[in-house]
Design brief:
Chain lengths: ~300, ~280
Amino acid sequence: MNAIVTLERVTKRYGRLTALEDASLALEAGEVVALVGHNGAGKTTLMKLILGVIRPSAGRLRIFGEDPAGRHGARVRRRLGFLPESVAFNGAMTGAELLDFYARLKRAPLDANPELLRRVGIAEAAHRRVGTYSKGMRQRLALAQALIGSPGLLLLDEPTSGLDPDSRREVFETIDRLRGQGVTILISTHALTEVEPHADRIALVDRGRLLAVGDMASLRRKVPLPLTVRLRVRSCTTGQVMTKLSAYAEVLARTEDRLELAVEPDDRAALIHDLDRLRDLVEEVEIENPGLDALYRRLTAAEAR
Amino acid sequence: MNALLTVAGQEIRAGIRNRWVVATTLILAALALSLVLLGSAPAGTTGASPTAVVVVSLATLSIFLVPLIALLLSFDAVVGEAERGTLLLLLAYPVARWQVVLGKFVGHTAILALATVVGYGAAALLLFLRDAAEPGDWAGFAGLIGTSILLGAAFVALGSLASIAVRERATAAGLAVALWLVFVLIYDSALLGLLVVDQGQVVSGGLFDALLLLNPTDVYRLINLTGSGAASLLSGMSAPGEADQLSTKLLYGALCAWILVPLGLGVLVFSKRQP
């Protein structure tokens, strides 16, 4: 078995607060798993447990076959890269200096650092003070430090928070590239749709509990969620439009020139096809994927039953 | 390279970058040089050598300044990193917690030591160039620099402990101010008040000695102001109670304990902390 990360019924309590309850999860080598949940759902707690900076209140966890909070924790952490959710580096130091410091701690060769900075796209700012960096550049620097020493396991806590779309895309390009190199990656995020194409499996966390773990298809099977479709059509043609779409679309809201419909994901192709034929009538189309909230509601409702 | 030294090196580099090193060196140098240039003017003409005058004056002023600088350097050490989010990142590296605490302590003490050696050393140089040095003078000055570094280290350790024990930066700053007030200002006044009220009834010489050892600044004062004959003559500190019974070895031991105990406590508390 080549599981890099194994959690067996892990619980973490802070006093009376239960941050993570009875979580079991295994990450295989080379797998990308997205940890999806709201703020405070327990994503960061899970990462801290894997890092070994906190100990579980109950249960067992093994990273590279070792207890990360145990005696050989440092050995585990040498093979691990971590991008914290929010980090404010000392603004007086330059990017290159900070990277050198972290590389020394990891006993990684310093001469690999310029290449790391180049790869995350801040090579030209390497010798500028971090205080002068933009938010995006700081996040790139944080990503560069996580990549020091070619870690076998990468923990990325909200890697795209506060980034512009270009930077987000680059972050996911990096993730895809590392995935191709066989790095095991755990990404935490609250934007499900964003990570979906880049992850092998999704783990949904809500209020300290792992609700569901699986690939997107199996999650969809488990929780079938309709797409929300918003249309703006020429005035008083909603009836005409509906005659074409009524086979699979359910009307959620309706005014004289607007329609809000629920469509099962399987009917997406048919919908697009029909909308194309209705292009004389339809002026605006907005298709929304099922959000995390909807997924949660379904899952928690399913559990309550 | 050892993780401890890497952490220490980073603290020193940051200290150079944010001008802490320059500022503290300049302050200590300005203080020491001004005392040398004033010469014996504040003390009047005494039987003591000019060096002894400077050593005594400098020791007295160091008691105020060195702990203050040490606390300012160290109170932010851990709690500041925790607030910036870099502490969690640091602990995610292959670094043991004791290495973080000791590394920061070593870094801050090194900054203070550098400032003391350069600042006071410049004054010593000027002094010895101007006046002919007596054999005991060099030793006296070296002792002053050495004990000032030890005093600073004790307060760096206390500041680090404060930084580790609390959750918020503002609390750590408050604690640092409180530590300074208690050990530098309040403790001695309270002790004096106690002696006046007590009139020698309960507080024996031995107990008084013990009470003096419970404050690192008093230990420092005893070493520097009663240590050499000339200095004690000049400072009028030759016999506070029966303090002269305290051996030099014991005094240095006490000062080292003031470094090691808070540092040990700091390591202990930090290993329990949940980032």
